[in-house]
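Support case: magnesium ion complex. Customer-provided input:
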Amino acid sequence: MLHKSRIGYTKADAYIRVMASRKIIHVDMDAFFASVEQRDNPDLRGKPVAVGGSSRRGVVAAASYEARAFGVKSAMPSSRAAKLCPDLIFVKSRFEAYREASAIIRDIFARYTDLVQPLSLDEAYLDVTHDTLGIGSAVKIAKYIRADIWDETQLTASAGVSYNKFIAKLASDQNKPNGICVILPDQGADFVASLPVRRFRGVGPRTAEKMARLGIESGADLRTKDEAWLAAHFGSFGGYLHRAARGIDDRPVNANRRRKSVGGERTYSQDKREESDIRAALDEIIDKVWDRIDHNKARGRTVVLKARYADFTTLTRSKSLPRLVKDKTEFGEIGHAMMDQLLPAPMGFRLLGMTLSGLEQDGDQAGIEPAGNRATAQLSLFEE
Ligand code: DCP
Ligand code: MG
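Agent response - structure generated as follows:
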């Protein structure tokens, strides 16, 4: 146990008294697409399975835990996955089945609270501070939800139970698959201190590298830095890092958010293979989408890159900043950085797209979303 007085956490202490009375659950399905495939085809159970790339030239969208033991993971070229795991079984994705399972888990969440914020097909935050069913504790509610999910979908989910979204999400990952992790208010700061910084939302490989150069590997290292130092090195990201290192996150669970996103995509008559062509194509999309964003006065903190390969395997990459995306330059840089993760591509791209979303992902923070933000449907900017 750390001596708080030595580090001087008066603000954090006050926070624990005032804000830490909330009860937040983060639920995330285990190896979601791959688990649905294993459920629906008993031959796949207990075996290494990759969903997505049906051909040897494809790309992995989701990997079963048996496959992950060999190092197989999302966005990896199927050829590399097959080398890592010679017995890997490739299956095509079936979005209808994933959507159906997703609808069932959302129904289950709604039984326990009205305050549900879905983040994607397979995960959501729930605010169960008000125990409307009189169940007795948030931990019990999380257990019931995991049991309901198993009974009604024959799929497993992991859950994190804590006093804010930041920690609940970290916690749901802690005992995956099929696990639960409870972090109480007085454990939050120590839990965060024990984690590598790359587990923090918004800290991607590049930021993690920069932190490593500055001697920051863990949450504990981060906690030794004051706000001014963090602002000097990480700009406006610094404030978030300062709070995160102390386990502080006041964002509410936003139920019934309208989708607010602006984006565009383009299908190419000839697949884009060369990196220079891919980069130029992405720049064109960035220009057009940003024009649209400007026109709509849209703001957001989540940038999504969509890429469809020649074999129709479609991947999305998304990055959420702890604040709004500033300008086109930043929007473009994030898009290209996400593209870095997909290159070299095992085959050409037939479609590329970019989206800026405001509240759609784990996005909003009270007070920083401009009033003029208008909900806009995903627009197709290009037609061929
Ligand atoms: N997915 C995707 N493209 C990505 C990442 C994920 O299409 N770049 C899909 C496949 C996953 C599903 O979304 O099955 C859920 O994503 P998660 O990140 O929650 O990953 P999993 O559920 O597969 O595994 P985990 O047990 O780590 O949550
Ligand atoms: Mg998942």
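Residues 28-33, 61-62, 74-75, 122-123, 176-177, 315-317 surround 2'-deoxycytidine-5'-triphosphate (ligand 1) (CB under 6 Å).

Case will auto-close in a few days if no follow-up is received.
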